[in-house]
Amino acid sequence: MTNRLRSLCAKHTNLSNDDITEIEKQINQISDKNLYPESDVFIDIIDCYSGEAIVVFQRMPIREKSLYSKDIVGDIAKRKNEPAVYRTMETSLNSLDLMGKSQEGQSMRQRVYPIRNNKKNIAVLIVENKLDDSNNADTKIDENIYEISADDDFIINKIDSAVLSFNDKGKLYRVNHSGEKLYARFGYQDNLINLHYDNLSLDFSTFEQIMYFKTVAENTSSMERKVFFNNSYFDVKYIFAENHIGFTMIIKDITEIKMKEEEIVHKTVAIREIHHRVKNNLQTIISLLRIQSRRTEIEDAKQILDESVNRVQAIARTHELLSRQLEDNIKLEEVLISVMSNLQRGSDENRKITVERDINSDIYLSSDKTVDVALVINELVQNSYKHAFEGKEVGTIKVSADYDQGQRFIKISVEDDGVGYDVNDEEAINLGLQIIKSYAEDKLRGILKIQSDSNGTKTTIKFKP
After folding, report:
1. Could you tell me the pTM of the whole model?
2. Cα–Cα nearest to 465, from 399, 412, 414
3. Of the candidates 23, 222, 337, 416, which lies 20 to 30 Å from 129 by C-alpha distance?
4. Which tens digits make up the pLDDT trace of 395-428?
5. Is 2-135 a domain of CATH 2.40.50.730?
6. What is the residue extent of each domain of the chain?
7. 131 within 8 A of 99, measured Cβ to Cβ
8. DSSP 315-356
9. CATH architecture of the domain with range 329-465
10. What is the pLDDT of residues 44-78, one digit of tens each?
């Protein structure tokens, strides 16, 4: 028996040697003390790959005829036939006198107890007897105490969630159609009426614990918890009515919602990883451009390469921020500060150019719009550094961003106190201004306004968030 047990555990589980030794102790106790002499006794484990229960030990009755005609060790116990086995494995609670169906198709009743080691379930002990409804002779509920009107039945049967009401003894006296369907899905074959809460609980809670909570929480009319059972997620709510000495349990299946939430999280993590990789690829491009810039001896080429570095850096910074968060919206202030800091580091150290900012910290934009704005601001500030202060050793650049007309529009401006330029001079329209115009009007669908004279230049962009 020991070799067979260990072989099955090795094949179907990740149980440790200590776990298997504990199961062997249980088997020895059953055999040495002739426990449950009138019953078929089994021990099942859960296959770690399929989640199905596997029989690893069987002992036929000593005093009665067995319900089985053959050895079923190694066979599968299906949930639809033996719900008590799975319930006890998943909740660590005893399941007593629940109806089941044997591997040979015979109806019976099961008592199932958890076998635990190191604070976890490792197997279940199952005691089976032939079906005898006399065991449930007390199934009749006193209808004078728990009157259920036709209106009540009509209402609760229209509710999609399972509704189960228990009396002061923990016995179920009312269940709606959704409740019956739910427990049928779990494999329950009994009429649920008069089953004890401890046989119906989907988590570790017992009737005694629920009633204790009801007693100590005097001003609480309900309690809620989330439960994972039968590979499904549930919201379970307990309602304690003043005129009701028991309680009502409402079970709502939220598996679909939970799965969608997990799918969103997985997709979000994947998107963050994509942003991270894009940022790394852009950093590689930046490194290559800087190498080319250092190697070239042509000043115009060096300047073009340095400007390209700043443009790619503005895009890379946006992807870096996106790789650190779950949401698609980005705080505009963080991106613009990064863009301005990068340009300041590459500015002419012989001139004292002060960069001021007045940016509303509550502005958040989508990733696409943030990249567009970052590129526009990069070009505007870069143009100011490059052209606005010719012949001047000091100057100021101010970047502003705020909501306009309530929150219908966002207004961004870059202003300097430089020498200005003729906005109508086509020769003054360089690549930077072409990028600004293209992104402001085509990408952001905004309005671009440029004002310039001998006192400086102010460029304003207004667009919808």
Report:
1. 0.58
2. 412
3. 23
4. 999 999 999 988 889 999 999 999 998 888 766 5
5. no
6. 2-135, 150-253, 256-327, 329-465
7. yes
8. HHHHHHHHTT-SSS-EEHHHHHHHHHHHHHHTS-TTSEEEEE
9. 2-Layer Sandwich (3.30)
10. 999 999 999 999 999 999 999 999 999 999 999 99
